[in-house]
Amino acid sequence: MAPSPFTPTGLPRLCFLSYRQIREFAMPVVAEYAGRAQIEVVDGTFGGALAIAQDRVERGVVDAFVSAGSNASILRAGLRAPVATIQLGGFDLLQALIKARRIAERVGVVMYGQTIPELDAVKDLLNIEISQHAYQTPDDARQRFEALRREGFTVIVGSSLVVELAEEAGLVGLLAYSLASIRKGFDDALELARVARLEAGRYEQLHSVLHNLQEAVVAVDRQDRIIAVNPPMQQLLGGPGLRVQGQALDALQPALSLRTTLDSGLEERAVAQRFAQRDWVAHRTPIREHGEIVGAALTLYDAGTIQAADTSLRMMQRRQQHAARHGFGSLAGTSPALQRAVASARRFARTDLGVLVTGESGVGKELFAQAMHNDSSRAGRPFVAVNCASFPESLLESELFGYEEGAFTGSRRGGKRGLFEAAHTGTLFLDEIGDMPLPLQTRLLRVLQEREIMRLGATAPIPIDVRVIAATHQPLVELIAQQRFRQDLYYRLNTLRLALPALRERREDIAAIATPLVARCLARLGSPLDAAAALAPLLPLLTAYGWPGNVRELENLAERIAVFLLQFDRVDAVRYTELAHDCPELFAQPGAAAGAADLPLAERVARAMELAGGRRAEAAQRLGVSRSTLWRWLRELEGEKPQTATRDA
Ligand SMILES: Nc1ncnc2c1ncn2[C@@H]1O[C@H](COP(=O)(O)OP(=O)(O)OP(=O)(O)O)[C@@H](O)[C@H]1O
Questions:
Q1: What domain of life is recorded for the organism (predicted)?
Q2: C-alpha 553 – ligand 1 centre gap (Å)
Q3: What is the pLDDT of residues 512-526, one digit of tens each?
Q4: At what angle do helices 550-565 and 510-525 cross, to 10 degrees?
């Protein structure tokens, strides 16, 4: 696992706190551990040791302490920090006694805490008289020591303090610790320091998260006593000066109580709550450990912030609606007519001038507008498309320019920004500009000239930076002659002119546009057919067709063809003549059946006759052949007497 960024780095910091005797004895071990830890060696005198250690803890300069005997006990009892104890091993004591026996037959043993009953067994073994004593305080130790001295003991085995006293009195003091025990103490301290650092890292992380939250958070234990609180909640509970830790939340602020959560164990989310003259959204959550409820937490979210977030989410959704999805890469086809249009559009995209896109319905005017926007310096900014023909005049006006609150009956509170404002810094695509009512044309002209808009009912204009791309399928020059379009607006919009060719003027693009559409549709519907292979027999029909609805019509037809193809699992099994039911327009065109040369002759003729309602002249026209040819075919194919089965047109 990667270490938390909050875990302190560098060597673990140990503080070795002891009396002089053990400290001096332990120096070789301290030197041994110097590469693995940063070790501070401190002289600990009884009582003073704790104050020294506390100072280190408060300054946060020590990860773990290592100490022995009474010092270790005092540190453990009084510090909120890990303390490793240098333990006295039984073998250590035995070695010290063997040394003592060489000097004297009577040995005093003075240890911190309690006596060691097992020593009695050693007594006989070593042929030594042992007088054992335990002490709790330094005074206690001194008294024990004095008593032994009075009794004539000259050698004392014991802790660091005892050895110190013995030496002061000119007696022999033997330290009961071995270097091995001291090493063990340092190893324990290193491990404690490692764990302490991990915990400190975790705590820091939580602390930092909690303290940086904008929300007010409080956590309580099982008894509703506050165990954690962050600054915003501290403020709500009584200000920074008040000590809230350990207090019952219920008593401090009954309105924020978590008792019900503690009792029921149920989470409450997004509950509106009024507190301290503000509106909040409250979450109350039980805290569980191993399934048991051990506490609960309350989070208060500022209602204003939530409302702002809601608005921003809606704005984001709206911005996504106002984004241009297509680029020039979305344009299928390689015909010279299309390529010329693309080349012009690419050039226009580099300017910031208005563009008037002309062309029949469905030729791709909006697609080109999006592509120009995405190729321009305004890419990534809003692209707002509005169809001027799809709104009644009054609505179009408020859609485009927005309104102030109270501008008209039923106007929304706070007013509404218009599409010009929505398109600010981006592009506004005004489709079907020829359908814009004259009064709005006047307003539009003013916006284009002044570069500012005035919301309905507003008194001050709003500056606006928008590139306008307009489109029309109507001949604006004729509308001008009929006084249905303002000439000055026409010149304003018409700075750059992009005329898009109708699909029938670039029939070579039909396959390139239709094939991916059919392929996508087949894949979506789970058909195994290859779109290009399945479309090939239909290409003469598709190419011959007039496409009054241009690419949009082709898209629609491609979907129908794909759905028709669904019933076949192999291309050579497709009965193309049946497509006439789904796409009659393809078959109804003059010469259609003749175009579908890949279809068997019998089917083509039957189809043409059916579509012509039995009229031979019309059927011949559909097939693109003379009446006499048709008659001949009919006789050959059907052996039919034409006069009885058909009518002459
Ligand atoms: N060259 C092309 N390649 C692929 N798809 C195209 C191409 N041209 C147009 N389309 C697609 O045809 C459909 C109609 O295009 P678009 O809406 O841009 O036409 P329009 O001229 O703006 O139509 P209208 O005048 O009716 O608003 C869209 O789905 C568009 O993606």
A1: Bacteria
A2: 9
A3: 999 999 999 999 999
A4: 40
User: Measuring CA to CA, which residue among 499, 507, 623 is closest to residue 554?
Assistant: 507
Looking at the fold, whether 272 and 341 belong to one and the same domain comes out as: no
The reply to whether 417 and 341 lie within a common domain is: yes
User: Could you read off the pLDDT of 332-387 as tens digits, one per residue?
Assistant: 999 999 999 999 999 999 999 999 999 998 999 999 999 999 999 999 899 999 98
Q: Say if 316 falls within a structural domain.
A: no
Task: Give distance in angstroms: CA of 550 to centre of ligand 1.
Answer: 8
CB contact at 8 A, 37 and 84: no
* Total of domains in the chain: 5
d(CA 547, CA 423): 33
Q: Which residue has the higher pLDDT, 108 or 114?
A: 108
Coil vs helix vs strand at 429: strand
3-state secondary structure 367-413: HHHHHHHHCCCCCCCCEEEEEHHHCCHHHHHHHHHEECCCCCCCCCC
Which residues are near ligand 1 (CB < 6 Å)?
A: 331-333, 359, 361-367, 431, 471, 473, 513, 551-552, 555
| Atom 8 in ligand 1: residue holding the nearest Cα | 364
- State whether 462 and 391 are in the same domain: yes
Task: For CA atoms 578, 581, 584, 590, give the dihedral sign.
Answer: positive
190 and 119 share a domain?
no
C-alpha of residue 402 to centroid of ligand 1, in Å? 28
Residue 598 is predicted with a pLDDT of 47
Span from the CA of 559 to the centroid of ligand 1 (angstroms): 15
